[in-house]
Amino acid sequence: MTVGPSLLVVLLLLPFVGSLLSVCLLNTPSRRLPAGLAAIIILASLLLTASFYPAVSDGGVVRFDAQWLPQLGLNFTLRMDGLAWIFTMLITAIGFLVVLYARYYMSEEDPVPRFFSFLLAFMGAMLGVVISGNVILLSVFWELTSIFSFLLISYWHNNPNARDGARMALTITGIGGFCLLIGLILLGHIVGSYDLDKILDSGDVVRNHPLYLPALIFILLGALTKSAQFPFHFWLPNAMAAPTPVSAFLHSATMVKAGVFLLVRFWPVLSGTYEWFAIVGAAGMITLLLGAYFAMFQQDLKGLLAYSTISHLGLITVLLSLGSPLATVAAIFHMLNHATFKASLFMAAGIIDHETGTRDMRRLSGLFRFMPYTATLAIVASAAMAGVPLLNGFLSKEMFFAEAVETHADSILDRILPYIATLAGAFSVAYSLRFIHTVFFGPPPTDLPKSHPHEPPRWMRFPIEFLVIACLIVGMVPALSIAPFLHSAVVSVLREDTPEYSLAIWHGFNLPLAMSAIALVGGALIYVFFKDYFSRCDDGPPFLRRLKGQRIFERVIVEVSWRWARIAEGRLGTRKLQPQLRWLVVMGFAAGMLPLYVRGFESRPFTYSGFDPAFAAIWAIGVVLAVGTAYMAKYHRLAALVMLGGVGLVVCITFVWLSAPDLAITQLLVEIVTTVLILLGLRWLPKRSEGLGESMTLRARFRRFRDFALAILCGVAMSFIAYAVMTTPVPDAISNYFLENAYTEGGGRNVVNVILVDFRGFDTMGEIAVLGVVALTVYGLLRRFRPAEDSMDMPEQQQAQNRFDEERPERSAGDTVRDYLLVPSVIMQWMFPVIITFAVYLFMRGHDLPGGGFSAGLTLSIAFLLQYLAGGTRWAEDRIRILPLRWMGAGLLTAVSTGIGAWFFGYPFLTSHFQYIDLPLIGKMPAATALLFDLGVFCLVVGSTVLILVALAHQSLRINRLRTIEAAKSEER
Hints:
two-stranded antiparallel sheet
C-alpha cells in the first residue's frame, strides 16, 4: 500500500487538533470524556504511523514539501524514515498507554482536560522534532517541547516544587534550544541548505569546514541539555514534582530522548572526529557513572528512577561518541529498551504513590503481600533495568559492554571506558535491587498516609503489563520481535555503512559476558553490604550530598538576573528617559550614515528648479509647528500634542500633494488614533513642577546645548541622506517590477496595497505580529501602572464643575460635563454606523483603490474610540462587546491560514491567487486570496488599537475604585 506524503501533515496536526478540542472540555467535570478524546487522537496517530512502515522498512523515505521561503531555504518539510518511524511509534504507543494510565491516576478534582490538552500538544511537538525535514523547523518544534514540558511539569502549580522544577527545566532546555538554533544555522551555512537530507549527505563537507567545531559545540549544547547530560543533568530530578504520567511520558520515552535522538540523527554528519569523541564521550561517561551513583542513595522512588534515567542516557551518549556503526546500533536499541522498562517503572511508582500516599522508600516495605501483581511487574521491569538475562535490557547492555572493550581512539577516555561501564553496571544492579527489596519485601508498612494499600484498577495496571510483556518478548525472541524494526532505523542512519550485527541471546563465553556477570554479582554485593545504610541515610550520596544542582542553579540565576543586571544597569544603563532617547538618536544617526561612509557618496551639483509657494508655505507651517512642539513639550503638554497633530496633518497634505493617497489616508487615520490615545494618556502623567526653569546650573546648560547640537546634527544628516537618495540614480529599481506586475501577478491596481498583502506579505505578517505584541505589552504595563499621587485627583476644571453642581439642589455631580458633551456625544453615537460602513468601504476597495485592511482597521477603531469618548467606559462596554483579544487572535490566525492555504495547492507560503467571479445582480468582480490576508490585518489592527484604548480607559475605573476605598477608610477612622 502506498502512503501519501500528505498524511505526514495529518499525523503532525492530529495531536494539536486534539489539544484544541480538549480546551473546549475545560468545564467538563468527568475524566472520561477528555481521556477518551486523547486516547482516540493518539490511537489514530499510532495507526497512521504504522501505515508508513512498508514505505520506510528498506531504507525508504517519505517526504512532504511545502514551499515557505524557498529563496532562504526555509521550507515546511516533513520526512519519515526508519529512525523517525520507530521513534514516532514509540511516542504514540507509550503516549496511548500513558493516557489510559492517567485516566485512573488523575483526580476528579484536577483540571483533567487541561492536562490532556498539554499532553497532546507536547506529543505534537515531539512528533514535529522527529519528522521535521528542515533543521530550522526542527528547532521550532524543539522549543515547543520545552514550553509544553514546562506546562506539564508545573501542572500542579500550587506546589512550589513543581513551579521551581518547571522553571529550571525551561531555563536549561530553553537556553540549550537557543544554542541548538545557532548550531543548526551554522550547519545550514556550511552545507548551503537547511534541508535535512542535503545535510545528511554532506558529512565530509561539514567535518572539514572551519565552522565545524562551533557548529558541533552549539548543537551538542542543545542535545546535552535536553537529555540531562552532565553538567546539565540536575534539572531532571527536580522535574519529578510533575504528575507521574508526565514523568512516564516525558522523562523516559520522549523529551529526554530528544537529545540522544538528535545525536543519532546527526551522527553521520558530526561523528568520527576527535572533538566529537572527546566532548560527547566525556559528558556521557561522567553522566553514566554519576547518575548511577546518585541513584543508589535516593529515598524518593521517582528520584531513584530519575537518576537512573540520567545514567542510561549517559550510556546511550557514550555509545554514540565512539564513532562505531555497531555502537550506534546498540545506542538505538537501548533507547527503545530503556523507554519500555523505564516507562513501566515510572507508572509502577505512580501506583505505589497512589495507593500508599508516599514515595519515600524509608516508609515503604512489604508491599508484595498487598499488591502482588503490581510488585511482580515492577520486579521484572527492574530486572530489565539491571540487565538481567532473558530481558531486553540485557541485550543492549551486552552490546554496550562489547563496544566498551574495543579500541576506538588513542585516548584515556577510551582506555578507562570498560572499567566505567562495569562499575556503572554494578551500580545499576544495586539500585534496581534496592528498588525491589526495599519496596516489596520486608515487614508490612506501618507509617503510611493511606493505611490499606491494594491493587489498582485493572486498566490502570494494563499499560505496565503491556510494557513488561514487551520487555520479556524482546529479551527472549529479539530476532522475531524487534529486529526488523530496529534494522529499518539502523539502515536509515548508517545507510551503506550498516554493519552485520546479531541480536542473539547467547554469544558464548566472552569478555562482555564476564563484564555482565561482574556487574550482576558486584551490584548484589554492594546492596548487601550497604543495605542498612541505604535505608537510613539522608537523600543524596555521601561526599556529594551538599552538592545540590538546584541550589547552584538558583545562585547562578540570582547572580545573573539580579546582581549582574544591577551592576550592568548601574554602569551602562539609566532610568532617565533623556539619555535613552539620546542613545537611540545617536544609533539611528550612525545606522543611517554608515552605508554612505562605507560605500561612499558621489556628490552631485545642486540644481535649482524653482518651488511652489503654496507647498513651501505648508512646510513652513509644519516647521513652525514642529519647533513649537519641541518647545512646548516642556511647558504645556496639551499644546504640544495639538501642534504635533498639526505636523502630522502637514505630512498628510504632503502625501496628497505628491500623489500618494494611500499614504495620506493612513497618515490621517494614524494621527487621529494616536492623538486621542496620547491625549487619554496625558491625564495620568505627573504634573509639571512650577518654577522648574528658574535656576539652571552650568551642567544643565551644557546638557541642553549638547542635546540641541545633537538634534541639529541628526536633522542635517537626515536631510543629507534624503538628498542622497533622491539624487542617486537607481537603474534597476524594484518599483518598476511592482508597477508592471501588480495587476497581472497580484490582481490589484492599487500597487501599494498589492505590495503589502502580496509581494511583501510575509513582512506585513511580521509587522502585524509585532503590533499585536506591542498592544499586549502596553496593556500589561498599564494594568500594573499606578499614577503619581498628584495625578490621582480629578482635574481642576472637573472639580470646579462638580462643586458648581453640588451647590445646587436640582443638580448632581457630573451634570455640567454631560451638558457640555450632550450634542457632541449624540453626534458621535450617530456616527458609529456611518464609520463602520466607511470602514467596510475602505476595506473592500483597498486592492484597486486607496484603502485596505490597515486603513479600514484604524477607521473601525475610531468608531469604537468615539463611543468611549461619547458615553464613557462603562456606557460603551455595557452596549458594545468588543473582545479585542479575540479580534487579534482571529486576525493573526486568518493571516497565517491564508498563507498555509497556498501549500495545499503546491505553492510557497502566502502565495496569492486571483480571478474574476460572477455574482448575481452585480456581475463580474475581481476576487483575490490576498483579501483574506487583508482581513487578518484588519482584525488585528482593530483588536490591537482597541486593547490599548481599553487599557487607558480602565485606568479611570481603577482610580475611582481606589478613591472609593480611601474614602471608606477615612470614614472608618
